[in-house]
Amino acid sequence: MQRGIQGVAYAMNAYSEKLNITANNIANIQTTGFKKQNASIRSFDSYMVKEIANNSRKFLGNLGNISLASGLSAPYTDFSQGNITETGYRTDFAINGDAFFVVEGPNGIRYTRNGSFTFDDEGYLITKNGEYVLGENGRIFSPSREIDIAKDGTLSTGGRLRLVSFLDLTLLENDGVGNFVTDEGNVIPAGNFEIIQGSLETSNVDVLEETKNLLELRRNYESCQMAIRMIDATMEKAANEIGKVQG
User: Fold this and answer.
1) What is the H or E stretch that residue 105 is in?
2) Model pTM greater than 0.90?
């Protein structure tokens, strides 16, 4: 019985963690360049809650089979391409391919797929968070606050946009504001891309898929709650019966 409680508790913890990941994906459906996260639930063999007790069998029809999770794998980021949407704004750049923009902020160099840029008062191209967008020769400056870009990243202001890729995408860490950070040794020049001006890459979150996952995870979590209540009730009844026999 104790093993049953522990198994259900492990399952609830795994489902709770994955619920948070799924909810965060859904919350970022409208976030430009957002890359969804996922994690795999490691599970025991399908576990029938009939282990609880024979006299609880009448409740099992409502509960059914539960695949009890033993834990959640480390969350990972899905870097698949999002859709390209035209905006008409000349400072919006979308990447079609495996490249990342390079930006510089108070915390150093970061990498992002969010190409929603603007110019600051001095004429430097920046992100909406105020980070400087970098070209191959450093910060991008345009006194006229106008800019054009070719598909290969060549800028009308001179030089090229700095675009990079990575030896191992799994080494990228999310900084919490939509950018990624990694060791410099993991960074390589991008080779397979095109830049589309006046457009943005949307989030790669599939709202229907994530909503389906959310509902399924909630059902599993609620089934685990029901299982624990049944186990508690059975243990309490067993304790009372033992007390009567001893008495």
Assistant:
1) strand 100-105
2) no
pLDDT tens digits, one per residue of 95-128: 999 999 999 999 999 999 999 999 999 999 999 9
Own/partner long-range contacts of 128-134 (Cβ < 8 Å, ≥24 apart): 129/105, 129/177, 130/105, 131/103, 131/104, 131/105, 131/179, 132/103, 132/104, 132/105, 133/101, 133/102, 133/103, 133/161, 134/101, 134/102, 134/103, 134/104, 134/109, 134/161, 134/162
Strand runs (DSSP E) across 106-212, as ranges?
108-112, 117-119, 125-127, 132-135, 138-139, 163-166, 173-174, 180-181, 187-189, 193-197, 199-201
Distances (CA, A) of 33 to 59, 125, 180, 199, 228: 47, 18, 12, 11, 41
More confident residue, 65 or 231: 231
d(CA 243, CA 37): 51
